[in-house]
Specification:
194 residues, 4-stranded antiparallel beta sheet, mainly beta, single chain
Length: 194
């Protein structure tokens, strides 16, 4: 079970395993990408727990037919959760936001070409942008990309193979980005990424 604690330490998100039979999902919900393969083993359940002074209240916020992962609460908006649909990256629209009460589920980046991948998402310091590693297509063209959560405007910074890494982070003002580097065995196939 994966968990994340909100910045105000009042909300805990957790991903619970679910029955592998998609008919076990509540009526009216549908798979996020019908016909798309992921590494999921059935419906995943994203639940948010609100911690009060003497009790914990649980809210099931969504069901998706994929594995869910990479939960991160927004650093400024305490009830906004960033999470990922896990799976074969080029076969899933990965990066999503949802509020703790289950409202406002929003895809942050939709694939636009075959073999496009995005992942290793993170919040900007001010909580206004979701940043991620983007490759268009996989292992060929590399970007650090971000989506403004209010306007959905996407910003892309082109990077070369040797500056592409497995994970990134940004400065408080989003003017500098850091990578943990890569090597010839990773998706960038970088000979000089260390």
């Amino acid at each position: 079970m994966m968990e994340a604690l909100s910045c105000q330490m009042q909300l805990i998100s957790t991903i619970l395993p679910a029955d592998t039979d998609p008919t076990s999902a509540p009526t009216g919900r549908s798979p996020s990408r019908p016909g798309r393969r992921g590494s999921g083993n059935g419906w995943g359940t994203l639940a948010c727990l609100r911690q009060g002074s003497s009790s914990v209240e649980s809210t099931t916020t969504g069901y998706q037919y994929v594995n869910l992962n990479h939960q991160q609460w927004n650093p400024v908006i305490p009830d906004l959760l960033l999470y990922a649909h896990e799976g074969t990256w080029h076969e899933v629209d990965r990066t999503w936001n949802i509020h703790a009460d289950g409202s406002g589920m929003k895809l942050m980046h939709k694939q636009t070409m075959d073999m496009e991948i995005n992942g290793h998402e993170w919040w900007s310091f001010n909580g206004k942008t979701v940043w991620f590693d983007l490759q268009t297509p996989r292992s060929e063209d590399f970007w650090i990309a971000g989506v403004n959560i209010d306007t959905m405007k996407e910003t892309r910074y082109h990077i070369n193979r040797d500056t592409c890494g497995a994970h990134f982070n940004g400065s408080r003002d989003d003017t500098m980005f850091m990578s943990d580097g890569g090597d010839a065995s990773q998706v960038s196939y970088s000979p000089n990424g260390k």
